[in-house]
Write a structure and sequence with these properties.
The protein is mainly α. Helix content is 51%, strand content 5%. β2 and β3 form a beta hairpin. The longest helix is centred in the last third of the chain and has 19 residues. The N terminus is likely disordered.
């Protein structure tokens, strides 16, 4: 009989395997088409990633409808700009490996699974935009625009025509990808109420609640604003309140 003493091999159940989040690398197919004009890459974008391609063309770039006869040429021509070509190259270089992002996403959503009943896990994919948006949420998906996370000192970001403020630049780094994914996804599940006009303070408190939960999901203090502190104080004073109840409480006077 063969024995193994002290082995620490751990086998995951199918349920545990299914909980692993891996970023779908749509950006690689996109990059191949936009840098080489490879027709097979375009076909893959349209057949394997129809929703992502439609979202990118119609909602992010806003260059037309995906079924327009000339949209493929418009799409390719749009990215021939030297700045956008540089963004593509830099994005693919910095994000050749996204294992750390996958691990952080899995850990964060494992936490959310435990504290928010019936949470539906999103599918996450990467793409390259045009410095317009950071995270795209819709149809139970999260799209990461890698071009908005190339580092606060990236020369492209520092060009005067973009006008990024220092506080914006500080968040355009790799470390903010997962917090932003979690935050924007939670905002899609717990949006600000639209049945009445909100003051700026109420909007800030709403974001503060979400960012407080993001901090918990990340296991570290990513966001530390006055409004995050309000949420923290509220939860310390109401220890029986669940995360879902916190996010769903839109009586903002409770937090002041």
């Amino acid at each position: 009989m063969l024995g193994c003493i002290g082995c620490e091999w751990q086998f995951k159940s199918p349920e545990e395997e299914d909980k692993t989040i891996v970023v779908d690398r749509y950006d690689r197919v996109q990059s191949l088409y936009l840098t080489t004009g490879d027709f097979s890459a375009l076909q893959q974008m349209n057949t394997a990633y129809p929703m992502q391609t439609r979202t990118l063309i119609e909602d992010v770039l806003r260059i037309g409808k995906v079924d327009d006869a000339e949209i493929n040429n418009k799409f390719l021509h749009f990215y021939q700009d030297s700045t956008l070509q540089a963004l593509i190259a830099e994005s693919e270089l910095q994000y050749a490996n996204m294992d750390d992002i996958n691990s952080q996403l899995t850990s964060a959503f494992n936490y959310l699974d435990d504290v928010i009943p019936n949470l539906e896990r999103p599918e996450v994919y990467a793409q390259i935009g045009s410095l317009d948006q950071s995270i795209i949420v819709g149809n139970n998906t999260i799209g990461i625009c890698l071009d908005k996370y190339l580092g606060s000192d990236n020369p492209l970001y520092l060009r005067s025509e973009y006008g990024y403020k220092q506080e914006q630049l500080q968040m355009m780094t790799r470390q903010y990808i997962v917090p932003d994914c979690v935050g924007f996804y939670l905002l899609s599940l717990y949006p600000m109420p639209n049945d009445r006009p909100l003051s700026q303070l109420e909007r800030d408190i709403h974001i503060g609640k979400v960012q407080w939960v993001v901090n918990k999901a990340m296991g570290e203090t990513v966001f530390h604003t006055l409004y995050v502190q309000m949420a923290d104080r509220y939860m310390r004073h109401h220890p029986n309140t669940t995360i879902a109840q916190l996010l769903g409480n839109n009586n903002y006077a409770d937090f002041q």
